[in-house]
């Protein structure tokens, strides 16, 4: 009896294929290229740990409510993947893809296209995906490292160039500096090596699952769930 996954014998993959490679095989039906593997690993490391951000706190408080429901606590943390936390990489990727398409249709260059789109976001008072960060100012070291690796490996292509174009105009459009953050760098480097746009959100989800498991294991010996809940209650002025 054999088990076949994506046309391959699972028993032959066990012990010979890394989880990163297996993830790409499941996702795309083939093993990753060297560049896909390299940058997927790099992005997973870059995005996994974020400290006590809201979705991590939700996971810890869920575990406090039911210490036997590890799966529920992880799920609570992942459910926070949205337009502010975790989901921004997908939004930035869609913005980049749309910007490249507009540039090619109009015949303008990256700088003019980026400025036009940034102005549109500014006019409708919408945040520019992948820009701004409450802690990392003026630079996000994670983003800079990913972009530098793309330059070093020669994979920086149209998405990295377009993201750099946005970086060059954003301060002028907003009237203040906005950090190019890791959620901008992830889609830029991953789309340039052929990772599918529709799967971008899966990168922070996969990475953060590992981090949530670590936080929840720590919570078993250093419980914070009720402490966080108590401090949240103290911060609210009930009327």
Description of the molecule:
This protein has 239 residues and is an all-alpha fold. Among the domains are: 32 residues, no CATH class; 111 residues, Cytochrome P450-Terp, domain 2 (Cytochrome p450-Terp, domain 2), CATH 1.10.230. The chain has twelve helices and two strands; from the N terminus they run E-E-H-H-H-H-H-H-H-H-H-H-H-H. The chain has a two-stranded antiparallel sheet with strand order 1-2.
Comma- or semicolon-separated keywords:
Cytochrome p450-Terp, domain 2; about 65% helix; mainly alpha; two-stranded antiparallel ribbon; about 240 residues
Give the helix/strand layout.
Layout (H helix, E strand, L loop, with lengths): L3 E2 L2 E2 H4 L5 H10 L5 H14 L6 H12 L4 H9 L9 H19 L3 H14 L17 H13 L4 H17 L7 H11 L9 H20 L3 H11 L4
Task: Summarize the entry for a quick read.
The protein is mainly α and 239 residues long.
The overall average pLDDT, rounded, is: 91
Could you tell me the CATH topology label of the domain at 88-198.
Cytochrome p450-Terp, domain 2
**Total strand segments:** 2
Low-confidence runs of at least 5 consecutive residues: none
The number of helical segments is 12
Largest sheet: 2 strands, antiparallel
Helicity range: 55-70%
Q: β content, as a range?
A: under 5%
């Amino acid at each position: 009896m054999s088990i076949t996954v994506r046309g391959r014998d699972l028993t032959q993959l066990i012990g010979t294929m890394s989880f990163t490679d297996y993830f790409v095989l499941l996702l795309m039906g083939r093993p990753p290229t060297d560049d896909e593997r390299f940058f997927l690993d790099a992005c997973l490391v870059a995005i996994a740990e974020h400290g006590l951000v809201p979705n991590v706190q939700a996971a810890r408080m869920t575990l406090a409510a039911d210490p036997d429901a590890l799966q529920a606590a992880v799920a609570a943390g992942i459910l926070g993947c949205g337009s502010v936390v975790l989901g921004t990489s997908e939004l930035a990727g869609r913005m980049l893809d749309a910007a490249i398409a507009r540039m090619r249709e109009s015949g303008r260059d990256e700088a003019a296209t980026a400025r036009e789109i940034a102005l549109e976001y500014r006019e409708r008072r919408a945040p520019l995906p992948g820009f701004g960060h409450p802690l990392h100012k003026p630079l996000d070291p994670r983003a800079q490292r990913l972009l530098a690796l793309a330059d070093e490996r020669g994979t920086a292509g149209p998405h990295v160039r377009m993201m750099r174009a946005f970086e060059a105009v954003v301060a002028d459009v907003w009237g203040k500096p906005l950090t190019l953050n890791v959620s901008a760098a992830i889609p830029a480097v991953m789309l340039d090596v052929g990772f599918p746009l529709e799967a971008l959100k899966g990168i922070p989800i996969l990475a953060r699952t590992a981090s949530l498991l670590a936080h929840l294991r720590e919570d078993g010996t250093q419980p914070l769930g009720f402490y966080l809940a108590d401090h949240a209650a103290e911060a609210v002025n009930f009327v």
